[in-house]
Amino acid sequence: MVPDMRTSLIAFLLVSVLPMLSVSAEDWSIPLAGNTYRTAPEPGGRGLRRDNGLQWSATQDVWTVYFHVDRPATLRLSLVGKFEAPADLQVQVADATLKVSVPEATDGNVAVGNVQVAKHGYVKLDLSGTVRKGDTFGSLRQLLVQSETPDLKVDFVRNNDGNMFYWGRRGPSAHLNYTVPRDLSLEYAYTELTVPEGQDTIGSYFMANGFSEGYFGMQVNSSTERRILFSVWSPFNTDNPKDIPAEQRIRMLAKGPDVYVGEFGNEGSGGQSYLVYPWKAGTVCRFLTRVQPDKDGNTTSYTCWFSDAADGTWRLIASFRRPQTITTLKGFHSFLENFDPSTGHITRRVHYGNVWVRDTSEQWHAVTKGRLGVDATGDQRHRLDFAGGAEGSHFFLQNCGFFTTAAKAGDRFEITAPAGQPPQLPATP
C-alpha cells in the first residue's frame, strides 16, 4: 500500500518571523494553467484558461496548486498576475492560513509569504477569494516559488509544449508490463481486476488486457455511467479515423448484445467497442482476450469477453479483424489512466490478480512477474504521483492525487502464485 502522504508545512505570515529570501534565490515559475484544480465545491469549473491561467469570481471556489520538492526547504511564495481592482485572497498551506491583500489595481508579483517545508513530497496550496471590488479576483498566471535551499529540485508541469497542460492535469499513466514466456506463441490473456472501494474516481480507465495492437478494460465515465471498453488500433498511423484508407480499417466480425461498435481517434485511431455496464468497486471483474492470426496470412483477429465474477457469465464484447497484421499475443500489459483533467488531483488504485496466458498448444502459464512503466507525463517529471508493485497474490497500480512515493519506472516486482485457476473458455463467435 502506498500511503497518501501530503507534505507537512509550517507557514509564517510575517517577515520578522522568517526572514525574506535574498534576490539571489533560485526561482521557479509554476504556470497555474497546468498545475491547478478546483477542489471545492467540486472538481471542474471554468476558471482555468490555457492562455492566461486562472480567473474566478465565486467566494466558495477553492483552487489548489501542487508542486513537488525533493527535500526540506524554505520557500518564498508570490502570485503573478493582473488585478483590475482591489481584492483580498486567502492562501492555505497545510494548517496555516495566509491573508493576501491587493489594495489597488496591479499587474505583476503579489507577495504571499514565506513557508518552511518539513519534508520532501508534494506541496499543496489552496487559493480562494474573500473580497473583490472587480468582476473577478484577478487573472493569475503563475505561482512564483523562490528558495535559497542548496540543490533544491522542484518538479511541476513546466509548460504547454505538446499540450502538456492538458496531459499534466490528467496525471501520469502507470503501466504494468508482464513477464511472459518468450519462446512460446501465446493466444489468450486472462486477468481478474478489482477496483478497491472508494478508488473508482470519475475519469478512470482500469485497463486489464493490453496487447501490442489494442487494449481492453473498464471505465468510470460519469457519476451515472460505466463502460467495458475494447479497442484495436489501425495499422495506419493517424489521430483522425476518417483519414484511414478503406483497406487499413479495423473490421468488426461480431459483437455482443447491447455493445456499441464504432471508431476512435485522438490517441491513434481504429475500431472501438463498449458495453455500458454497472460494474462495482470491490467486485472481481474478469477479462479474457484472444489474439489469432487468420488463415489468409495477412490479418489477425482479436476477440474479448467480460465477466462480472458475481454473475459468472461470459459476455462477448466484440471481435475485430486487423489488416496487414500477422501476429499472436504480444506486449501483454495492464495500465491505469485518468482521461478527465478535472479529476487529476484525486487518487485511484486497481488490483490485478490471477493473471494467466495460454499458448497455442493449449497450455496455461501463470503470470507472477511485472515491471512498472509510465508515460511521458511521469517520465519527464511533470508528475511524480504514480506507483505499482506486488502485494501477496496480486499486482497493483496507483496514480494521481499527488501522493508521495519512491516508485520509479523500471521497478520490478513478483507476486506469489495466483490465487485461482485459469478460466473455462467461452465459445468463439
Which tags fit this structure?
429 residues, mainly beta, Jelly Rolls, 2 domains, nine-stranded antiparallel sheet, 3 helices, elongated, disordered N terminus
Please give a structural write-up:
The protein is mostly beta strands. It has 2 domains: 148 residues, Galactose-binding domain-like (Jelly Rolls, Sandwich), CATH 2.60.120; 245 residues, Sandwich (Jelly Rolls). It is built from 3 helices and 31 strands. A hairpin with a 3-residue loop joins strand 4 and strand 5. The longest helix is centred in the middle third of the chain and has 7 residues. The protein is elongated, with a radius of gyration of 24 Å.
**Biggest β-sheet description:** 9 strands, antiparallel
Count of helical segments? 3
Residues in helix, % = under 10%
- Give the N-to-C terminal Cα separation: 40 Å
Instruction: Determine Rg (CA atoms, Å).
Output: 24 Å
pLDDT < 50 runs, ≥5 residues: 1-23
* CATH class descriptor name of the largest domain: Mainly Beta
Order of strands in the sheet with the most strands? 20-21-18-17-16-25-14-28-31
Proportion in β-strands: over 45%
**Overall pLDDT metric:** 91
CATH architecture verdict of the largest domain: Sandwich
Shape: elongated
> The CATH topology of the largest domain is what?
Jelly Rolls
- Overall structural class, as computed from helix and strand content, comes to mainly beta
Number of strands: 31
Into how many domains do the coordinates divide? Answer: 2
